[in-house]
Amino acid sequence: MTIAVTSASGQLGASVVRQLINEIGKENVVGIARTPEKAAHLGVEIRKGDYNSRQDFDAALKGIDTVLLVSGMDDPEKRIQQHRNVIEAAKQNGVQKIVYTSIVGDETNTAFSPIVKSNRQTEVDIKESGLEWAIGRNGIYIEPDLEYIDHYAKDGEIRNCAGEGKCGYTSRGELGYAYAQMLLGNEHNGHVYNLVGEAITQATLADLINEVYGLNLKFNSVSVAEYAAERKKALGDFMGTIIAGIYEGIRNGVNDVPSHYEMAAGRPHRAHIDIIRDFKKA
Ligand SMILES: NC(=O)c1ccc[n+]([C@@H]2O[C@H](COP(=O)([O-])OP(=O)(O)OC[C@H]3O[C@@H](n4cnc5c(N)ncnc54)[C@H](OP(=O)(O)O)[C@@H]3O)[C@@H](O)[C@H]2O)c1
């Protein structure tokens, strides 16, 4: 069985490729990347694949049995057709199964909802493709908070608009493990899984970071409008709006969902404190 992973040059794609190499050996894994040279370090065959190009995927999916479609990074309205290019190419080129990395969240009410909505449309497109399928809805990655730790330490606070809302965080390492199992096991076909760890508040996240890093961060919650204005100033309109929308969703409770991680991975999700400890060591 040959398994291909799209966006293999990215951190999630690379995590899945590494896990698949462990499970089935590098000769059975193909990475597909918009920028192939950025994926060369993975040590597997790399083929070119830009989501904007149906032709790229007609070539890249030749001889592939199962493909992981990692959701794109473009504007939500562009993503739907980009993902369809991969789905259509999979159908035309004899791929038997498609696994998709979707996202936890709600389709209305926040500035992040257009992205969730575009992911839900791709879920429908995949279910209607006639291929075998499995879908993961990813929780929020914990790593970006840890990469931001110097800023938190300087400010003495984690500041956002999540209030008391709980968020089922995950990590790219945990997702890489779960997606490898979903690609390999037929028992996952026809399932939609929430791939999240324990749901925690921002105050608990601050406590965990404090314990591992020896800090004394406080969590300060601000209004959605105030936080959106701050983030847009710092990150520009597109990313600022997305980030504020994510924390608004957490405030509204949309990231506090039941976890299906163990069903997907065959083992429990790792504890957040252990993931944070490993991140610090690395
Ligand atoms: N759950 C979360 O918290 C969270 C956070 C951020 C993103 N996400 C979603 O999860 C996905 C994977 O995350 P990540 O950590 O791997 O992000 P990442 O490390 O930033 O990688 C993004 C990947 O998307 C690829 N890409 C962008 N546009 C593309 C296109 N037109 N055609 C093909 N590939 C394209 C990039 O290719 P190049 O190397 O050519 O640039 C890169 O491989 C993201 O794309 C996004 O949809 C989720």
TrEMBL record:
Classification via Pfam families: NAD_binding_10
Residues annotated as domain NAD(P)-binding: 8-141
Recorded superkingdom: Bacteria
SUPFAM superfamilies in UniProt: NAD(P)-binding Rossmann-fold domains
PANTHER family, per the entry: NMRA-LIKE DOMAIN-CONTAINING PROTEIN (PTHR47129:SF1), QUINONE OXIDOREDUCTASE 2 (PTHR47129)
Protein name per its UniProtKB record: NAD(P)H dehydrogenase (Quinone)
